Each structure stands twice: as structure tokens, then as C-alpha cells.
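Recall the central idea of this unit: under ordinary conditions, the amino acid sequence of a chain determines the structure it adopts. In this exercise we apply that idea directly, starting from the sequence alone.
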Amino acid sequence: MKQLYFLSLFILFAFLSKAQTITDVVAKQDGNQIIVTYNLQCTTDAGIGLYISEKGDGSFTGPLKNVTGDVGTGIKPGKNTIIWNPLSEQEMVAGDNVVFRVVGLPKFSGFTDNRDGKTYKTVQIGNQIIMAENLNINRGNNWCYNNETTNCTKYGRMYDWETAKTICPAGWHLPSKDEFENLLQNIGGGSSGGAFNAIATSGKSGFDVLFGGYRDKYETCLNIGTTAYFWSSLQSNPDNAWYFCVGLKYQGANMMGNLDKRSGISVRCFRD
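Accordingly, the structure predicted from this sequence is:
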């Protein structure tokens, strides 16, 4: 039997950038529906998603599908309402620490690399425009995970650091350590766990991380499906460079500075 049972409801709000802010969020149960009201401030029409955590532990699922009202794309600024029909989406919703999150969803666009004709999804996060997919051009020192072309198709290619510094197309560049730290601040508020929750949930932050693993200096491929690695342009010493790491096992997103430059990892290009 389908059941809807809440002892209490809590709300969190999230913002995508300085140009899009969500405040004054209130949720209440009305029969078998959840009604969420919020105030949206934005300079252009926004995309809005509703997420839920039934444990209140910061792990959210969504965006919820069976929702109506001011949700999805093209949402206008002002006082808005979302109506969720939980029992049309799942068998039971219950708990004494249920948390909802109203999230400003990113707007995606595209970029075509004229060197090989590949088109990449791009997204603006804060004031940064970023490729929302891993680079996949066969130039310089690069590899597919375990030399399987299907892995390049899914995860992009892995590049050594010297190649990564020059592999982005004209008008784009390999991000600096500071640029990655700015990204982490925008999507996680300076929290490794907050950044992980935003970056590892498809469509939530817009970065859409792919856990493509890496190729070490001994030519061994490791950690596909569990960890994502992205080169920055800053070396930490003559042999190693800084990189951005997102890990499922430790559920964190951090900058690290101890990866051998001969290793092969992913590249995300930032617009100049």
C-alpha cells in the first residue's frame, strides 16, 4: 500500500550564481501533495528543480519528476509554487527528518571544436563558462582507459600534463588551480561534501562529473567508475601538478597537488 507520512518537513535553498538566488522557501503537506513556495530572484528566466532527502543527511535525490507549477525551464522571477505528488513517483515517502531542496538548474549550450568537428555541452557556473563533458580529441600524449575506444566515447581521453596544457581549442584553456577553487566555492560553498553532492548529481551543478579513472606513470589504469581526475595548469613541483579530484568512495571534491605529470587524466576546458 502506498503511504505518505511526514513527522516534519525541512527546507534548504540553493543558488546557482549571483544572478540567480532562491529564498523564502516553505514546504507543507496538503493531503497527498507537498506544496513548496519560494521566491526567485534572477536576471533571466531560470531552470528550477526540486530535490528530496528522506534521511536529512545531505544526500539528495532528484530532480523530482511528478511536479507541477513553477518548476522546470523558463521560470520567471517572483513568488513561485511547486506541487509534488509523491505517491505517483514512489511507493512510500516517510521520515522524521525529511529535507527538500529547491535548486536553480544550470543552462546548457554547446561548442563545436573545429579541429575534429566534435560538439561539447557547455555550462555557465557563476562567472565561469565550462565544458560539461571531458575533452576527447586524439592529439598529443593521450589514452583511452585500458586502450578501449568505448571508454574514450563515454569518459573522454586521458592526457599527460604537458599535453593537457595545450590541448584545449582556441578560445579555451586548461583551468588554473584558482579557477577550480572558484568553481568549488560556487557549487559547494567551500565545503568538500557540499561540492561533492552538487557535482556528483547529474544536472544539479552542471559540471556533470564523469568518473573516468586515470592512467598512472607505469601505464596502469585505475579507479574507473569511482574517481574523476582533472588537470589544472599549475605544477606543484618539477615532477607533479595540481589536479581536481572527485571521489565516490570518500564523497569529496578537492584540489590535490601530488600527481606525476606523466600520468593520464581527464581535461575540462574553461572559456578564456
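The first strand starts at residue 3 and ends at 6.
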